Amino acid sequence: MSRSWSDGTWTHEPAAVEEVGGDLVVTAVEGSDAWRHTSYGFVHDTEHALLAPFAIDTAVEVEFTAAFSGEFDQAGIFVRAGDEHWIKAGVEFADGVPGVGAVVTDIRSDWSIAPVPDWTDRRITVRVSWSGDALTVRAAPTGEPLRLVRVLPFLPADPGAVGAGPMVCGPTRAGLRVPFHAWRVTDADASLH
């Protein structure tokens, strides 16, 4: 089921948002990011995430074009259960190449990323499925089979307060524009494979 862009509420307003031919084009504010402590000692709570209710036994998908060039340019899905309990999953430009990965935050953040240089400038689908006490993250260029990125425990204190949706951050530069082509809600994945 397609979700309307108007269904969501921004965690932090982007520099600009416009609808172009059905796409939602989001321009990030320079310095926008989401991170809590861990190694670097800083906290960033300035991501641009368009969130709508996310229910157990469902999955959320977004499609966007990964035309990144600035260090840590990123887009994907944000799942928020609270200020210190959230995940972001998608594509991030690090060390000169796009990488697929996730940041999982339970008071402190971790980071997993794997280089995917062939995803440069391509349309990408990211999917987060919530089943039982876990989230399953998958991603791939749109039209290709989704590949497993991560499975993580997810036990929010208030399951009814969880939101999820498209996310973009521009930690190191102004002017990052990301076109989101789709936002969908479907049934949760039936299995890991």
Automatic annotation (TrEMBL):
InterPro entries: ConA-like_dom_sf (IPR013320), DUF1349 (IPR009784)
Protein name: DUF1349 domain-containing protein
Taxonomic lineage of the native organism: Bacteria, Bacillati, Actinomycetota, Actinomycetes, Micrococcales
